[in-house]
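User: I need a structural model of Radial spoke head 1 homolog from Bombycilla garrulus for a docking pre-check later this week. Nothing fancy, just the predicted structure tokens so I can convert them on my end. Input:
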Amino acid sequence: EYEGDRNSQGQRHGFGKARLPNGDTYEGQYEDGLRSGHGTYRFKNGALYTGDYLQNKKHGKGVFFYPDGSKYAGDWVDDQRQGFGEYLYANGDTYTGEWANNKRHGQGTYVYKETGSKYVGCWVNGIQDGPAELIHLNHRFKGRFLNGKPLGHGKFIFDVGCEQHGEYIQSVQEKEEEEEEEAPLPLEPIWKVSEITKLTPWSPHDEELLNP
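Assistant: Understood. Predicted structure tokens for Radial spoke head 1 homolog:
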């Protein structure tokens, strides 16, 4: 069913309302028979998208409300979350940052609602990967991540006024002869401390004291 403007060829063009055969509805702009411009699309399953369209695809700025209560607000390209956007997850976690092909990709900040901790750094195809900072209530970790786990050199910075330097080492599971067919379980990287130092603050006044 369609109710709205049409062009001289009889195609949907301008503003209109439509009910699709699957029970979804759309209300918004059309161009030459296709959803283009601003519109609101309601899915039969309870999801809703309101934002920009280009030739029947979500493209531009838009907000998508998912049936589980989660929500994405940001950029879309060719029906995919791409560009910059904020995602509120059903469990209350949030991600604000860059997207590509529907996945967290580039620079972004993920906040864990349950603990208040946040990851600020690089993402590759939805996974924490690259230089980052993991900020907790009274301390933070600066280092690199690989496949969602910290790996290599880094440091913990504690609010009490010290830094713990070290590295995360990928532990290897000891294999027993009979179990060789089974793939070894990936173990958590192990933190190995190298030294503990004071915080290393710097201010322009430090140089004035050294050069009277």
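Before docking, keep this in mind: The chain has two domains: 1-76, 91-171+189-197.
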